[in-house]
Amino acid sequence: MNITFGTGRVAKKPIFDTTKNGVPRLSFQFAMDSSIKEGEEYLSYYVSVVMYGSRAERMAEWLTVGSPLAISGEQGTRVYEENGVRQYYTFLRLDKYQRLESRDLANLRKVNNEKPEVVDKGLDEEMGLPNVGRGYEDY
Q1: What's the sign of the alpha-carbon dihedral 21, 2, 68, 104?
Q2: Among 36, 54, 72, 118, which lies 20 to 30 A Cα-Cα from 19?
């Protein structure tokens, strides 16, 4: 098992939907600073994060762009083929998280940002990926 831990902020508007089996799913891009400098700036890592079930529903109620979090979970990779070329999509299946701001700041952020987008299409379509193999839709 490959466990990843990091701190950072939600980088893009979270997407709340359900898998084809009806399981609630929350997905978002997460930005983390690295220790690698390029010029005067530190590079950032962007990780695709996904969470399922009732915990995803509860998290979707308050999560917004800019929300600071400490996260951990299992790293997974899906393989698919596009135009005859093998492609890899890596994601973090969120297991644990800790909010890193007070409720007052979170509420202020919530007022200034919208809640996660609720969509009818799956993460595969949203990210332009084909629906192949055993992936997170099977949970």
Answers
A1: positive
A2: 72
HEC string for 2-43: CEEEEEEEECCCCEEEECCCCCEEEEEEEEEEEEEEECCEEE
How many angstroms separate the CA atoms of 19 and 139, rounded? 8
Looking up tokens 């399922």 gives: 52
In the numeric block, the tokens 């899906």 are attached to 78
Position of tokens 């973090």?
A: 92
* Token pair of 49 as six digits: 């994060």
Q: Distance between CA 47 and CA 74 in Å, rounded? A: 12
Q: Which two tokens stand for residue 63?
A: 């999560």
Question: CA distances (Å), 90 to each of 74, 75, 77, 108, 114, in order?
Answer: 11, 7, 4, 32, 27
At 15-74, the pLDDT tens digits run: 999 999 999 999 999 999 889 999 999 999 999 999 999 999 999 988 999 999 999 999
Pick the CATH number of 3-128 from 3.40.30.10, 2.40.50.140, 3.55.40.20, 3.40.50.2300: 2.40.50.140
Counted residue by residue, the chain has a size of 139
Q: Reduced to 3 states, what is the DSSP secondary structure of residue 8? A: strand
